[in-house]
Amino acid sequence: MPCSRCKCACKCNPYDESLRKLLWRVKKQGWTKERYEEQEKKQDGMCAICHRKSTNGRRLHADHKHSDPPVPRGFLCGTCNRVLGMFQDRIDLFESALEYLKKY
Fold first, then answer.
1. Do residues 65 and 89 make contact, with C-beta atoms less than 8 angstroms apart?
2. Residue 22 within a domain
3. What is the pTM of this model?
């Protein structure tokens, strides 16, 4: 089967192929290949919030600040990424949730 990158019958490294596809997707979020690889090494496969490693073999989510232009922030596990999305990056909601948890 020809690889989708070069259309040849070679056996390209599947990691390189999946990384290329991933970088294409996150480029619109402000990530560059260099920034992505640097952050990947810095976090060592751990979520920037809960500090847990991905246990299902999947990559962490490439998080970005929702601004124009978008600004890359770090890698998050699926749970932490969803929490940020549900709270719409609003610090006041996080503070309110923290106060609620402290109260009970």
1. yes
2. yes
3. 0.70
